[in-house]
Write a structure and sequence with these properties.
The chain contains seven helices and 14 strands. It is α/β, with parallel strands linked by helices. It has two domains: about 60 residues, Hypothetical PUA domain-like, domain 1 (Ribosomal Protein L25, Chain P), CATH 2.40.240.20; about 160 residues, Alpha/beta knot (3-Layer(aba) Sandwich). Helix 2 runs parallel beside helix 3 and helix 2 runs parallel beside helix 7.
């Protein structure tokens, strides 16, 4: 059953967005009477379509289903090429990421002006929404504004992790096992060329733990997938 998110509830009915209306009527070719799942304020409802333009659905049943991780993980991903960023967002959503921070670094190949940044955020948020529906999430993770290294050191998290290939880094497995009661975590991932040494030093001096994903050097688009898989294994019960 297809899943959609909405913010508009009237009595026992939900109205879906124009984008969702197009998807339901033109892509899925649904009709009145067909059932869809709707998430409203993180709660799941089984609904029936009663109108098609725009799509309005009527509640049939409320389900006690919650598919989120117990820990809120923010993926702070350095800017990379579009196809790689799309993959990172999609797979990170499937693995339970709570939010995303695009990060400008010295080695970032992608350089954006203000207008491009605004367009990218809109595009990335759409990708995240679609991945959330596909993976049966109860929330749509938020894509925050593009930040720089100096911005993220002041953010409030219980655990701050910098993924690094430095031989002195602590394995992510050990870090997670030593922070079992962590509620909010941020994981910072470098671009294709990695971080500059001074960037890593700056983050470490400001409370980030230099952590390794293993002996092999992973591509930047693999790092978030691997880290979130490990977090799922350690935290999801």
């Amino acid at each position: 059953m297809q899943r959609y998110f909405t913010k508009l509830k009237i009595d026992n009915k939900f109205e879906l967005s124009l984008d969702d209306t197009y998807h339901i009527t033109k892509v899925m070719r649904m009709n009145k009477g067909d059932k869809v799942e709707v998430i409203y304020q993180e709660k799941l409802y089984i609904t029936k379509i009663i109108s098609l333009n725009p799509v309005v659905v009527e509640i049939i049943e409320e389900k006690d289903t919650y598919n989120e991780l117990d820990i809120k993980v923010t993926i702070c991903q350095s800017l990379v090429k579009e196809s790689k960023m799309d993959l990172i967002l999609e797979k990170s959503v499937e693995l339970g990421a709570y939010s995303f921070i695009p990060l400008e670094t010295r080695n970032s190949i992608i350089k954006l002006d203000r207008k491009d940044k605004e367009k990218k955020i809109i595009r990335w948020q759409k990708i995240v929404k679609e991945a959330s529906e596909q993976s049966k999430r109860n929330i749509v993770p938020k894509v925050l504004s593009i930040m720089e290294i100096e911005d993220i050191v002041n953010l409030d998290y219980d655990l701050k992790i910098l993924l690094s290939v430095n031989e002195m880094s602590i394995s992510l497995k050990n870090v997670l096992q030593n922070h079992e009661k962590c509620d909010k975590m941020i994981i910072v991932i470098g671009p294709e060329g990695g971080f500059k040494r001074e960037e890593e030093d700056y983050l470490i001096k400001n409370g980030f733990i230099s952590s390794s994903l293993g002996k092999r050097v992973l591509r930047t688009e693999t790092a978030s997938i691997t880290a979130l898989s490990m977090i799922n294994y350690e935290y999801e019960r």
